[in-house]
Write a structure and sequence with these properties.
This protein is an alpha+beta fold and about 110 residues long. The chain has one domain: Nuclear Transport Factor 2, Chain: A. The chain contains 3 helices and 5 strands; from the N terminus they run ααβαββββ. The chain has a 5-stranded mixed sheet with strand order 1-5-4-3-2. The chain is globular, with a radius of gyration of 13 Å. The mean pLDDT is about 90.
Length: about 110
């Protein structure tokens, strides 16, 4: 249970760092061999592709978060600066107290 609470804090911190554009803080939460994949990208270089300047979203609300063993499943609603919004699901895998991988599953615009 303590691991789950600590990992929930890491997940929430990672999403908050993304919204705020705090790349260094996010990097400290990831393993050295971190991988990121989505339906469009397979194990891409995360920071060069997914962290544009300025941050692309106005807000990101975690609607669902479940931790089980070394995985976290997250559903979030992201609001873009232009007023559009969408939902995605992500599976984060942990190695110890760091995120080792993220797999994104695209949702629809809301």
């Amino acid at each position: 249970m303590a691991d789950d609470t600590r990992r929930e804090g890491i997940v929430r911190g990672l999403y908050a760092a993304y919204i705020d554009g705090r790349k260094d803080d996010a990097g400290a939460m990831l393993t050295e061999d971190f991988s990121f994949s989505s339906p469009r990208d397979d194990r891409i270089e995360y920071f060069s592709r997914c962290w544009p300047e300025p941050p692309p979203f106005r807000d990101m609300e975690i609607e669902y978060l479940q931790i089980a063993d070394d995985e976290a499943v997250v559903r979030y609603r992201a609001e873009k600066h232009d007023g559009g919004a969408f939902r995605n699901m992500e599976v984060l895998r942990f190695k110890g107290d760091k995120v080792a991988s993220v797999d994104v599953y695209f949702g629809r615009n809301v």
